[in-house]
């Protein structure tokens, strides 16, 4: 069998750049832990090849941004500071991040495994640099149509500060438009929180015009569920418990909300704690989708949704009330914390 060989440099420039873009795609679905292999490692290396290659692959880097820890936030803020310097110097390295961002994850998943605590943004953003950092972060965070946020005081504070900045400097409403456009693109909001959210926490949004407008613009609401049960006696889901925070959430403020998505790992017993922590466990995902009307019913929010019967991997089941369950045809390698990051980055 003959093998045709050629030098990469002999490819047409358009084809070569397509290869670069393909190679630059982050490996969120990798089997290894992110601590072992950074999912952005390929694209970061390609950014060092040349200015032209860097500009070609940066959209792949910026499409989905994961900032689970304070060190990630700090590095990202430093990158934004560098962009400001490039802009002042009119450098070829300056690049507009915001138009490329589609999904952004900030903070831990809230599961509490291995005593993982939420990223401490107060250490990542020093007081002297915080105003500039917020002015640079706000356009990036709020450019993402899909935003995942760990519900802790520091992360909520960050979002509130970004909303305040965006609202303060929002453009004037065009004369031919009746209603002002919100100064953000966020339509899908994913919350990760292990404990109930008190009504006073929601007041930080419902008591300000920008907070009210932000909640009213959310069309899809998601929440992460947790593996906090006995590993040795985990049954298949006979019912799906809804997150506790949903019972205190001001759902009436989510005026554009039409669906709520709740993913659950499909657990096949027995599950070894050591295997989960060190080797990972491959799991299918069960994705429950609820119509917003179900949560706004006069009977109130149900504590749990009855389980579906005989929905196999790759299949979808739907009920008359538009509640549906989809089971992923693929498996996600699940480790503490990064299981949710993987699934959110790849699917939600």
Describe this entry's structure for a reader.
The protein has 348 residues and is α/β, with parallel strands linked by helices. The chain has twelve helices and twelve strands. Helix 1 runs parallel beside helix 3 and helix 6 crosses helix 7. The radius of gyration is 22 Å and the shape is globular. The protein starts with 12 loop residues before the first helix and ends with a helix. About 5% of the residues have low confidence.
Give the strand tally. Answer: 12
End-to-end C-alpha gap: 44 Å
Number of continuous helical runs: 12
What is the overall silhouette?
A: globular
User: What class would the helix/strand composition place it in?
Assistant: alpha/beta
The amount of beta strand, in percent, is: 15-25%
Unreliable stretches (pLDDT < 50, length at least 5) are 112-119, 228-235
Strand-and-helix sequence, N→C? HHHEHEHHEHEHHEEEHEHEEEEH
Let me know the average pLDDT: 84
Round the Cα radius of gyration to an integer and report it.
Answer: 22 Å
Reported for the largest beta sheet, the result is: 10 strands, mixed
- The percent range for helix content is 25-40%
